[in-house]
Amino acid sequence: MASCYLYASARTVFGRFGGALAGVRPDDLSAAALTGVLSKAPALDPAVVGDVVWGCANQAGEDNRDVGRMAVLLAGLPVSLPATTVNRLCGSSLDAAIQASRAVEVGDVDVVLAGGVESMTRAPWVMPKPSRSFPPGDVTAVSTTLGWRLVNERMPTEWTVSLGECNEQLADRFAISRGRQDEFASRSHRLAAQAWADGFYDGLIVEVPGVNQNRDESIRDDSTPEKLAGLKPSFRGNGTITAGNASPLNDGAAAVLLGSADASAHIGTEPIARVAGRGVHALDPREFGFAPVKAAEQALARSGIGWADVSAVELNEAFAAQSLACVDAWKIDPELVNTKGGAIAIGHPLGASGARILGTLAARLHESGGRWGVAAICIGVGQALAVVLENVTGARA
To answer: What is the CATH number of the domain that holds 89?
Structure first.
């Protein structure tokens, strides 16, 4: 089979819940990301693109009816450009990139766009249809922003606890202290702020029309472990997980441009990285935060390398507890992980995060000259995905 390469990546800034991007529909955010990544390849005729694979976790409101296709049309791209929307919850846009990379490898397409979006602010309230006409009594509207809703009564109740409670259980299992979690979270803010100050994200961020926000909105430059220690637990009275050591609710979109080796003739630039391996894993829904451990190990094995070869890791920080559990299990140097900040600081708009970490990983490898990197993400209901990238821009072994 042919190899698949990453040629460019782009994303919007990530806005806080109710913040700078609250007035922007998710299909418009998606269109901005698509337009932005195509701007990195001005020689590319959009008509050459074979498909768009887009991720979104919610799809209950303005992101319904194949938001990927809506984005293509709103971006003014050729109506002949098809698009699909995939949903693997938090892993949706990484799954989109994985599916797109397979299409390149088997020769179905030569150039493909992938990515995803989430507006957690604009996620609607929903209610089920009644089982009969004109039912008496009240009906409760359910928020679709995050987590379980309209749960099947046959689902075991222990599987449907909150994401936070799942991670309290994980912290108990691996004896991950509140202090470690707060230190990890503070590091995320510190490194994200430094990366922005250093200009690392300047080439990755694209403008959202009508929005005046030039940096990810959730970053707290003054975050310290001592300040985070003062926050109350969010899920248990005596728990360790707080609003400060978990990812916030966010809005944003991210995209990547993928293609074969021959696609450089159409794209007009050389590739940045090769998709070398992929992994997917599932386990008990309560342990979703630990699922990246096996997914990353699968991806490494399929790439023919091991952890000793890896110089950069982008692990989506859903919670500090699960991130630390994964890093501990991998037995890697923690300083390889999220050196430009992570989701605790940058934000976690569910359907966009996978493409964000993939694009950030490629940029880190290009900057450092390291050869191999891993992007991994945990997914609610007990799943995870991982991708290994090989730097092809003069990488060092």
So the answer is: 3.40.47.10
Q: Of these residues, 4, 56, 90, 326, which one is catalytic? A: 90
Is 354 within a domain?
yes
Position 395 scores a pLDDT of 76
378 catalytically annotated: yes
Is residue 164, in this structure, part of any structural domain at all?
no
d(CA 150, CA 342) in angstroms, rounded, equals 31
Domain count, the chain: 1
Q: One of 56, 189, 326, 348 is an active-site residue; which one?
A: 348
326 is catalytic: no
Question: Are the C-beta atoms of residues 91 and 348 closer than 8 Å to each other?
Answer: no
Structure tokens at 33: 């990301």
166 is catalytic: no
Segment 26-46 shows an average pLDDT of 97
Task: Report pLDDT for 125.
Answer: 95
Mean pLDDT, the chain, as a whole number?
Answer: 97
Which residue intervals of the chain are DSSP H helices? 26-38, 67-74, 92-105, 163-174, 178-198, 225-228, 264-267, 292-303, 320-330, 343-346, 353-368
* Structural domain of 297: 5-122+248-391
287 is written with which tokens? 């342990």
% of residues, the chain, pLDDT over 70: 100
Q: Assess if residue 186 is contained within a domain.
A: no
State the Cα–Cα distance between residues 342 and 348, nearest whole angstrom. Answer: 9
Domain membership flag for residue 287: yes
